[in-house]
């Protein structure tokens, strides 16, 4: 049985963190989606970038609303056993509904930013059409609302391998401009599968901007990454923050 989108949005929002510029708003809103391991502090730096650009930001927690711990995430989400991108897409649809109830939010101007599993979630939310969405997400999907309200997306080392829909389906009836960051030494999601997904979007006529850091690993912008293969790069972290700010500026 599906949960009402508004009810799920309230539950997700309860565990998420909101950042807002000074004043009453309404502000355009950036929804920030974490990787498979859950919400981590480095994403709050990106939220503050959004605030400096005049946007509100919500760092969305997709684990706690589902009663999942960080250990659960490592054992089940990061291994692909549970919570695939299409299932997690419920959070995006529900948060779009929740924003309608927030006086500080301009629910008609939204930006989606996702890291790793969060990028997969964004991509699958577009790749699934209304008929295919039935039974695949926790709430009823509304592709028309998604396309009308989201003005841009940022995909940072997104997962686009087995189970991801974008390379095969594209984004159904199109989508917003895409900004992307791939890492040449990414041993978690690689760079070839994400590049293939981006190629599909570009071939379908979407505006796709790409940044490729040849010597970067997965989670290069997370100074607390628990994967031993990750190498923190503060210089690239700063660069991606600037890239994010530029994308928000283009969507204002």
TrEMBL record:
GO terms for molecular function: carboxylic ester hydrolase activity; serine-type peptidase activity. Pfam families: Peptidase_S9 (PF00326). Keywords: Hydrolase. The keyword Manganese does not apply. Transmembrane segments: none annotated. GO terms for biological process: proteolysis. The keyword Heme does not apply. Residues 81-226 form the Peptidase S9 prolyl oligopeptidase catalytic domain. This is Peptidase S9 prolyl oligopeptidase catalytic domain-containing protein. It comes from Caulobacter vibrioides (strain ATCC 19089 / CIP 103742 / CB 15).
